[in-house]
Amino acid sequence: MENLLHEVNRRRTFAIISHPDAGKTTLTEKLLLLGGAIRTAGAVKSRKAEKFATSDWMELEKQRGISVTSSVMQFEYKNYKINILDTPGHQDFSEDTYRTLMAVDSVVMILDAAKGVEPQTIKLFKVCRDRGIPIFTFINKLDRQGKEPLELFEEIEDVLGIESSPVNYPIGMGQTFRGVYDRFNKEVELYDDKKAQSRIPAANLDELRDVLSGFADEGTINQLEEDLLLIEEAGNPFDLEAVKAGKQTPVFFGSAISSFGVPSFLEHFLELAPPPAGRETSNGSVQPTDPDFSGFVFKIQANMNPAHRDRVAFIRICSGKFEKGLETWLDRTGKSVKLSQPQQFFADSREMIEEAYAGDIIGIYDPGIYQIGDTLCATKNTFNFGKLPTFPPEHFAKVRPKTALKQKHFLKGMTQLAQEGAIQIYKTEHFEEYILGVVGQLQFDVFIYRMEGEYNVALDFQPLSFRLARWLVDNEIPRDALRSTTNLVVFDTKERPVILFENEFALNWFQQKNPDVKLAETAL
Fold first, then answer.
1. Run of H or E including 355
2. What pLDDT does 293 receive?
3. How far apart are CA 78 and CA 413, in angstroms?
4. Cα(423)–Cα(417) distance, rounded to whole angstroms?
5. 93 in any annotated domain
6. Domain end position, chosen among 315, 349, 377
7. Is there a contact between 489 and 463 (Cβ–Cβ < 8 Å)?
8. What is the average pLDDT across 53-82?
9. In this predicted model, what pLDDT tens digit does every residue of 192-247 receive, in sequence order?
10. Residues 111 and 30 in one domain
11. How many domains does the chain have?
C-alpha cells in the first residue's frame, strides 16, 4: 500500500492545449528534451525539413505541420513520472481533444503573447472549467513583441472568467526582452540568445535593480518595478486550493522555441500540479490508491504501425496497480479480458511494460472488442466511469470505393476509423449508400488520406449540403421527413434513425410541422 501511494504521488498526467500555432508542439518537445526522452527537437514548421515534430507521427501531420491526433508521451524527470498528452490544436479535431481531456489530471494552456486568448482556446478552456481541471498558463513567444503582461492577465480573467496569478514576470518584451523575474523563488532568470541562461537571487526590488543594471535599459527596469508593485498590491494572491479547483491559473512567461523559461516552468508545475485523484463511477467513487485495477478507454487508434495493421486502445489507469497479463472484466459486456501486451508510448515508438499505476496511460492490443468509453475492472463486480462526450457532426459526404473489388477493404477501413471516433457512419434506407459525418471539414481529408494509405482504397467522394444531424427519440419516422428536399433520413451503425438537415431554418421548419416528434443532438 505504501509503495502504491508513493507511485501515485509521483505521477503527473496532463494535456497541453492551445489555439493552432501558439507553440504547443514546440513546448511539448522542449519538455521531452529536458526529460532526456529525445536528443534533438523536430522542425515543427517546415514541411520540407528532414526532421518533424516528435509528437506528430502521422504522415499527413508531417506534411501539413499540424497535429491531427492526440499523442501520448511518457518520461521521468527528477523522480516524477510524467504522462503528456499532446492534443490537436486545429478546431476540426476538437472531438479527439475533448475526449483526451477526460483522461488528464491537469492542463497546460499555451497563449501566444501577441494574440492572447484565441477562439479555440476558449472552447477548450470551457471543457476544462466544466470538469474543474486545474489549468496552468504558459504565455509563449516573449522574444517577440506582444501584448503587455497586465493586458494579458485582464484578458484571461475577462474572456475566460478565471483568476490569474503570475508565478514569474517578464523583463521587457521583443527586442527589449531580458528574462523573467521568478516571484516564488525571488530570482532573476536572465535571457541572452548568445549566452548561457542563468538564475541570480534578487530578494527585493533594490537587488532586482542591481542585477539588471547594465543588462536592461532604465525604462524596462522602471516598468518592471511598477508592474511588480501593482501586482503585489492589487493582483490575485496565489491560492493553491483555488488552482486545484480550477478557479485560478498560475501564469508563466517564456519562449518555447528558445527553451527559455521552460525548465523553471516544469519545476514549478511538477510541484504545484495535482497527482491522480479519485473519480466518480456508477458504483461510488474510486481512489487511485485502491488496490484493485480499473481504467477506461479514451482513445482507439488503428494502424499506428502500418506494417502490422494493428489497433491500439489507450487506457487511462484510474486505480490500483497494473501488471502484464492481468485478467480484467469489461463492464459493457461482462466478459473477461486478459491484458497480455501492454505498451507505453513515445509518439510513434512504444515499448512493452511489466507494470503501471494510476495516472499512467497504457496501450493494449485491440482485436476489435473495445469501444471508446469502455471501463475495465480487475474484479467481476464491475462499474463504469460514465460515457465520454460525443458531438453532433456538422459536415456530411456520400462516399464509396472507386473500384467495386475494394468493397471489403472499404468497409473494414471505414468501420475501424469510425471506431476511433473520428467519423460517424450512416446508411440511406433503400439504396444503402454510405454517408459520413464529421465535426470538422479537415477530418474528411484525413479520412481520404488514411483510406488510401492504410487500406489501399481510392474513394469517390461527394460532399452534401447538410449541416445538422438529429436522432429520433422514439424511432418513428414522420412522413414529412421522407418527402422533404432539405432533410434526409438515414440510419446510424446501430440502426437508429437520424434526420440530416441543411440548416437551422430547415430544422425549425420541421419541428413546427411535427411538434410531437422528439429529436436529440447526440445518440441516446
1. strand 355-357
2. 96
3. 43
4. 7
5. no
6. 377
7. no
8. 64
9. 755 556 789 999 999 999 999 888 999 999 999 999 999 999 999 999 999 999 99
10. yes
11. 3
Count of alpha carbons within 13 angstroms of residue 305, beta-carbon side: 11
Q: 60 and 13, same structural domain?
A: yes
Write the CA distances from 447 to 94, 298, 468, 521, integer angstroms: 16, 20, 20, 23
Mean pLDDT value across the chain: 84
C-alpha separations of 193 from 41, 142, 258 in Å: 17, 13, 8
Q: Do residues 47 and 187 both lie within one domain? A: yes
pLDDT per residue as tens digits for the range 82-93: 999 877 644 544
Shared domain for 147 and 19, answered yes or no, is yes
- Name beta bridge partners: 401: 459
Beta strand ranges found along 123-261 (DSSP E): 135-140, 163-166, 168-171, 179-182, 187-190, 198-201, 248-253
SS3 of residue 298 by DSSP: strand
Residue for grid cell 511489466:
354
**Lookup: cell for 228:** 511588480
169 in the same domain as 236: yes
Reported as a pLDDT band with limits 50, 70 and 90, residue 308 is low
344-361 confidence digits (pLDDT tens): 765 456 677 888 999 999
pTM passes above 0.85: no
Residue 60 belongs to domain spanning: 2-76+104-272
**Which helix (DSSP H) or strand (DSSP E) does residue 414 occupy?**
helix 407-419
92 domain-assigned: no
* 492 contacts 523 by C-beta, under 8 angstroms: yes
CATH number for the domain spanning 193: value is: 3.40.50.300
Residues 241 and 286 in one domain: no
pLDDT above 90 for 36: no
Residue 99 is assigned to a structural domain of this protein: no
Based on the domain organization, do 129 and 258 belong to the same domain? yes
252 and 179: one domain? Answer: yes
